Amino acid sequence: MTEVTGTTWNVYDANTLTQAEIYGRVLCDLAEADSRIVALTADLARSTKIGVFQDKFPHRVFNVGIAEQDLFGIAAGMAKSGLLPFVSTMSAFASMRALEQVRTDICYQNLDVKIIATHGGVSFGQAGTTHHCTEDIAIQRALANMCVIVPADGWETANAVRAAVQRPGPVYIRLGRGFEPTHYENDDYGFEIGKAVTINEGTDITVIACGVAVYHAAEAAKLLKDQDDVSVRVLDVHTIKPIDEAAIMAAVTETRRILVVEEHNVIGGLGSAVADVIAASGKGCAFAKSGLPDCYSEVGYPEDLYSHYCLDGDGIVGTVRELLHREFEADEDWADEF
Amino acid sequence: MAVDSNELPQARTREFLRTRLFLRAALPCVKVMLEDDPATKKRFKGVNAVVQFVARNQPRAVGAYLWFEDGAVRVEQGFWDADGLGREPDITFTFASLEKLNDFFAGKTVLPGIKGVSKPALLAKVVRLLLGLKLMLPSAQPKDAAKRRLKLKLTLYMITTALSQYNKGGDPEMERWTAKQPDRIYQFSVEPEGIAAYLRVRGGQTKAGRGVYERRRPFVHMRFHGVDGALAVMNKEVDFVDGVGKGFVRIDGSPEYAANLNDFMMRVQGLLTG
Fold first, then answer.
1. Percentage of chain B exceeding pLDDT 90
2. Is residue A36 exposed (0-12), middle (13-18) or buried (19+ Cβ within 10 Å)?
């Protein structure tokens, strides 16, 4: 942790904001080839790493001041006039303070605005509950036309930003603070919006995760293999909307036990999106969601908070062990057939 | 009426386990013979009878019966209970001990006491049906393609049920092996014939099932290619590894657990042929 140097939202110097750094660099590359791309921020250029873009394209960056509602209203106007705005701010502001503008100005008109929401979940741990954001996935996925992506790490962020440019309409990309562990080794693993990535093959249970939980789920799968000889499938469902129904249903039919892990309230996020798919299919399975149990988050280091809410490797291992023993079939008939 | 045979004092003995496998895994194969073998089916058309098998044992006897109803058969454990039907079993085979019953079903020469000799036609049909079970013995090498297919189907059905019964009968090693497993499917299939059977294991429970388990992906899937290839492997005409090399069988899933299962299959086979 670095020194306190200013107002609330740059309390912690974000020079090592990995995901956002990558976002800034990728955006620079894209802007070289696409003159429509502009970047907007609300006095958070440093925290959201738009500074890199500003150095290279000073005439294509717009800092509207601490006025998030204006930020999204202006972005909508720019998109309407043919530009391709990338709007960067903290997820709490993007999803709640400026919700009406995101909904009515951007989504209702299905405008080409890309929202880069940093400091999602409890990643801004010590900054306090007001600066955590554990409701944004639920809010954003309820907005018609909105595409919602929660990358696992910096590499996936790069892929998500590139893919967002190609996808017409609004896109919400939720990032962490930047100190999260990296799962992927590079960006060449076949990222596609709406297609889950199978991190680990398994047949006993599937752990579905997004964001930083992907790394922890992969760690948990290794622990469970080593300690319990349990075969865990891990899916990185980076796109919450449109969600990969085929991958979810394959997991349901092939493993019959599903645990969803996310840095979000257990209501309305990835877990709910997965539950929607399963409920609509009529298939039965043992199902559990790990996240914040419908409460406001505690304050502390992110790693401690992940542990507290069972979102780290050990926590996921515990939940998987519990889920493996849960009964879920009404017709448990163990008589041999003939 | 089912008898809770696991409660008997000798329930965990080798001989009792053999009886369990014969009565609950091998004897039910007559059902497949009646369904799949046209000659057998024709022979039992219109037959309505009860045929009981009893092995004397202390403190109580052990038994099972076949209940024929117009060509179809049900295999029930325990003893025929007239339950208002007002009739005794048409034929009862009585064995002096569990060992005698086991040897009879293993194909050895054993003469049981037979009540019901006054129904020679039925007795002849039943004896012929029981002799048909010898098709499952490794020594049986039918040339006819339909018989070979039947042999394979009987063997797969019998072995998956025998594995399940081996666990339910309380073999300590099998119990330990099944106890630690979450919900897993051990699938056997023979393509392109479409013969399939599976063993489901979860937390110490087991179930043998027919066909392909559709509700989850198998943890281990033994895919046999063709009846001849499958029989060669199952009859130990070729070593399992050679069978893989020759393309007779392929294993998808955990090789360690497949090997464990194979060990249990060998033990079960040892009990049934020993």
1. 71
2. middle
Interface of B with A (CB under 8 A): 24-25, 28-29, 31-32, 75, 157, 161, 164-165, 180, 182-184, 203, 205-210, 214-219, 253-254
What's the maximum distance between 2 C-alpha atoms anywhere in chain A?
77
B192 phi and psi angles, rounded to 5 deg: -90, 10
Least confident among A130-139, A158-167, A203-212, B244-253: B244-253
Name which of A326, A336, A337 to mutate to probe chain B: the one with the most chain B Cβ atoms within 10 A of its Cβ: A336
* Those residues with Cβ within 8 angstroms of residue A8's Cβ, 6 or more apart along the chain or in another chain: A127, A131
Q: pLDDT tens for residues A291-315? A: 999 999 999 999 999 999 999 999 9
DSSP-derived pairing of the beta strands B184-191 and B195-202: antiparallel
Q: How far apart are CA B157 and CA B41, in angstroms?
A: 19
Say whether A298 sits in a helix, a strand or coil: coil
| Distance to chain B for A232, nearest Cα, Å | 11
Give the closest of B31, B165, B217 to A336, CB-based: B165
Cβ-based contacts of A336 with chain B (< 8 Å): 24-25, 161, 164-165, 207-209
Cβ of A334 within 8 Å of Cβ of B206? The answer is: yes
Q: What is the DSSP string of A179-191?
A: -SPP--SSS-S--
- Higher per-residue pLDDT: B3 or B102: B102
Give the DSSP per-residue string, A248-286.
HHHHHHHH-EEEEEEEEETTTSHHHHHHHHHHHHT---E
Entry field: residues in chain B? 274
Select from A207, A285, A337 the residue whose CB has the most chain B CBs within 10 Å, as the one to mutate to test that interface.
Answer: A337
d(CA B87, nearest CA chain A) in Å? 26
Q: Is A227 at the interface with chain B, CB within 8 A? A: no
From chain A, pick out residues whose CB is under 8 angstroms from the CB of B165.
336
Quickly state the pLDDT bin for A331 (edges 50, 70, 90): low
Instruction: Name the residue among B157, B154, B233, B216 with its Cα closest to residue B188.
Output: B157
| Partners of B187 in the β-ladder | B198, B221
- Binary contact (B209, A337; C-beta < 8 A): yes
State the Cα angle at B257 between B251 and B261, rounded to 5°.
Answer: 85
User: Peptide bond before B255: cis, by omega within 30 degrees of 0?
Assistant: no
The reply to whether the predicted model has a pTM over 0.90 is: no
Which SS3 state, helix, strand or coil, does residue B188 take? strand
Mean pLDDT is lowest, of A173-182, A190-199, B139-148, for A173-182
pLDDT value of position A218 = 98
Interval B8-60: pLDDT, tens: 777 778 899 999 999 999 999 999 999 999 999 999 999 999 999 999 988 88
Residue A18: band (very low, low, confident or very high) from pLDDT cuts 50, 70, 90: low
H or E element at residue B51: strand B48-55
Q: Is residue A282 within 8 Å of A249, Cβ to Cβ?
A: no
